[in-house]
Amino acid sequence: MQFLKKHITELCFMLLLCGTLWGAVQLIVSGHIFNGDFALYIRQAQSIQYGDMQQVFSDMQEMIAHSTYQRYSPILYPWGYPLLLFPCVALFGINYFAFKIVGVICLVGAFIFLYYHPILSKERFRMSVLLVLALLTGNIFYWGYVNSVSSELPFFCFLMFSFWTMNKLYALKEQTEKRTILYIGLGILLFFTAQIRTEGYFLFISLIVLQWKNRLLGWRFFLPYASALCIWFVFTLVFPSGYTEHFEHFKVVTLTNLLHNIQTFYEYPAQILYIPFSLFNLFFWVNCLLGLYISSRKLTAESVYLVSTIMLLICWPYDVIRYWLSLFPLCFIFFIQGFRFMCMVWGKKAGKWVLYPIIGILICSVWKVSIKYATSPIQIYTTINPNVEGESAQEMYAFLRTNTAQDDWIACGESRSIYLYTNRLSCNISGEVSNLPANVNWYVEFLYRGSYLQYPHGVIRLNHNRFQQVFCNQDFAIYKILTP
């Protein structure tokens, strides 16, 4: 009994982790949807194995230049996630189950680093972080991302690892000679995290503020930045960078876009907690801001990172909820802290009777929805977004590999997957047929996608003198483009 009292939170945490593992693995399905960034991540991982990184850079540069819609992709993504996929690609080839297991490991790892955070694991925060983990480990929003070969879960894991390391190293508010190698390692860790997703560079701002708050000066102050700079120099020699041009997206940002992002982000808490009352969002953000105010001195690095990244996302022209995957844990920690503070105004005992029942209801609601979803038949593939490893997709790829020349261009709304599976250059085309690039030889049509990154079906039929159908199955049609 004494053991249970002493280790009750650890036992609860282990149960939550088991629930996460069960839910995440339960949702894994074979293959992958066509839409997404997966194809370029995998191709970049292959290029590490084959040593053709520069060729992939040149190919993607051409593919984007010839596409009608050019903001669908950077030339290359940062190399952190491809490096994580590289062992799987080298050992198993294109194996989506292996890629998804990497996601499961990263999800579990992120929750472990969050629970054992040097500050959050202390008595003041222990119950708060356990409540946050109860809300997130059983959330279908997190489970569902194991089916996506994308950088969100790896970044979440390395972000939590970075916070754990920063707070562990600087908890004593002094820099010792014995830790010199650890300061160097911290710089490498922060740089690698930023190479998974570029918002990770805000970690360096968090580190500066953390060092300044603890009054840490001297030559060891610069070690993390010096090591990060050295590894950046090595990276630039080995890996071509194609992500910086992605920041040209800021050129399309307008005031309307900013206001739309703020409104969209405001509504996220109720969405991921499956609460039908929009008033909950106001309740959440008020408590989150209060928690941020009262906890920022203890959670300095986390506060700086959260505020900096939210400001970036407000200015970013896309309101995609997956960008928030690594931010929600921080938001929820501050929300719990703020709500707890408000409840304790009524007295410690009375406050607990308000705090725990309300959070308990939220936890039960989240787990109920997630378990119901995980135990239901899983159907993520549709006629609009079929499986890249499905029979119809593989037939389409096989036809293209067999009947096209190496230097042929293939027009397709999912050009990166065509490039991955056929090793042919590809671009998306839409709009007027008169704008069809002269170098394009083939056209792949998604039969059920309408005009999304492709010509409407009626346009193809009206221009039968330009498009000669040579292949068709239940999901795709392939046309040979004829010279007028």
From TrEMBL:
Organism in which the protein naturally occurs: Bacteroides caccae
TM regions (residue ranges): 12-34, 83-116, 128-146, 152-170, 182-210, 222-243, 272-292, 327-346, 353-371
Keywords linked to the UniProt accession: Membrane, Transmembrane, Transmembrane helix
Protein name: Glycosyltransferase RgtA/B/C/D-like domain-containing protein
